Amino acid sequence: MSGVAGRPRIKDVAEYAGVSPKTVSNVINNFEHVSDRTREAVKEAIDALGYRVNLAGRQLRQGRTGMITLAVPELDVAYFAELAGLVMAEADRRGRTVLLHRTNGVRERELAALHGFDAQFTDGVVLSPLALHPRDLATRDRDLPVVLLGERPAEGGTDHVAIDNVAAAREATAHLLSRGRRRIAVVGGRVRGRQGTDRLRTDGYREALKEAGVPFDGDLVIPVDAFQWRDGARAATALLDTDPRPDALLCLNDHLALGALRALHERRVSVPGSLDVVGFDDIEASRFSVPSLTTVAPDKQEIARAAVALLLDRIDDPGGAPPRDHVVGHELIVRESTGC
What we know:
It is built from twelve helices and twelve strands. It has helices at 10-17, 21-28, 36-49, 55-61, 78-93, 107-114, 134-138, 165-178, 197-212, 229-240, 254-266, 300-316, and strands at residues 67-72, 97-102, 125-127, 146-149, 159-163, 184-187, 221-222, 248-251, 276-280, 294-298, 325-328, 330-333. It has a six-stranded parallel β-sheet with strand order 2-1-3-4-5-11, sandwiched between helices. A six-stranded mixed β-sheet has the order 7-6-8-9-10-12, with helices on both faces. The longest helix is centred in the last third of the chain and has 17 residues, at 300-316. It is elongated. The relative contact order is 0.11.
């Protein structure tokens, strides 16, 4: 066959490769029971003919749109912007399109996502909630596949992807303690209330102090209005006016940490000479700050991969496996802000 007039079809690929159309379909859908030799022949035929899968037609035949929703609190927080890019890349690799929705951490907007605010356009939702109540998950639309990112407001019932925030904060605090720091302030921390990310990371901090025999001081847990640069700068400035000052800051995201670094620079406080700073999230800016920022790096690539995979599994088999918790790895990246 020298060529195919018009857009090539599966039967054209099958004829070129010397196999049946069913075999071509099995290769396209990554079915396991195809020999390597046959799979390679079909792939060569696809490349030679320029065949492209008609995803739209396939999805419509299955009663689906081929689109999924990603709902995140903010896009001007670099962690969520970076994660959104990774989710979109992973969805694209799996033949899906992502509708991006910003909730601003507002419960009503998170509920709208949870109940399928654009259900006519999307097959499922990946949601990073901040404001949902525990009862909200119990009343959600069960026909809409949902995967939650971060700390969910209630146990069970929904597929979930997160790092171990307690362990991550414990490791970051232990690193500061190993450098002789004893008055470690938690910027963005919280000791009461629901088990959100801020509370869990504060719990990990307290565990590390206890293991090291360092008394916990509630005055060193500093809540913030938001997790933005300015909030970190304000918290650091206020802490510098206390007596005694802290000798380290554990900031619960990199925006807070980078804002704190700026405030410390303006007050001519040496980092890491007089005071250490640690962040969370390993956003790109943390590698280029002066000093570069020690930070906890969640495996964002794996978060994106796992979230999309769990959602597509649930879309394909709504009544399949029970809800799954996928714990993603993390790593403490030690840089100049703690003396690397």
